[in-house]
Design a protein that fits this description.
With 292 residues, the chain is mainly α. 76% of the residues lie in helices and 1% in strands. It contains 13 helices and two strands; from the N terminus they run ααααααααααααββα. It has helices spanning 11-26, 30-34, 37-54, 57-62, 64-74, 77-84, 93-120, 128-143, 147-168, 174-190, 199-208, 216-248, 261-291, and strands at residues 255-256, 259-260. It has a two-stranded antiparallel sheet with strand order 1-2. β1 (255-256) and β2 form a beta hairpin. The longest helix is centred in the last third of the chain and has 33 residues, at 216-248.
Amino acid sequence: MPPPITNCHSPVFIAELVGRAGYYKSHMRLDKAFLSVSAGMLLGFACATLISTNTAPWYQDNAPGLIRTIAALMFPYGLTMLVMTGSDLRISVWRMVGHWMITFWGNLAGSLFLVGIIAGYGGIFDLPAYHTEVIKLATSKQVVPEWHMIFLRAIGANWLVCMACFLGTSGRDYVSKVVGIWWPTFAFVSLSLDHVVANMIFIPIGIWHGTPGISVGLYIWKGIIPGFLGNMIGGGLFVGAFYWYLHLQGAGEVVVDGEAWATLAGGMESERKQLSDEELGRKRGGSHKTAV
């Protein structure tokens, strides 16, 4: 008999699993955390698809909402690849902030690689119609809105992106996870909200194509800063803190699929200690051989 369609984790279990994933990611080695460079690249491919789909002059003039909706339906494959491969979009507070900083620079490095090498020198948007759309999109996201508008849009963007990750965690199989990720991501893109990592593609590619009125300094002040701060509030407060308080605060130990977090965390710490002891032993052995 096939499993019922309601075979998914409960909200309490989802909150617990998201918390466990956060603990694991915050304790990653620095080199692995910086490999979030792949997240910038994977999301960059979806951003490029969005630009390509939006390059439809007749629809832009006569049905802009429709073409935006169609493009938004395509975009979530980027976040799906990102989540399913374990990449990062950017616990103690300091450990969390440190992880954010490392993944931020990794995301930026991956995005700029895609902008410069794949899209830029690859000439993906060199044809006049694509060139025009790149400039139009970058202008609408960076030149036209005020600082506070980008900040507020960024709150909504990461609220929905984190909801996508939250709902994706509810699934027990691949299709369920993809469906959970897809629709909140579609909502964020269809509303043209601002996510700091997605804009690491849209604005730099606009600069590459010579968009009037956009400089690196403007992008940092009016793009990265309000986008980063808004994303922190949208994801951290409206999803992370809210669902922790709603489902986990005062709930005691939560057992998911027969495993308690204390057991898993203890196992991680034991494994980490064992690896450290083995590394120390190898170093001592190497020193001893050298001395002999």
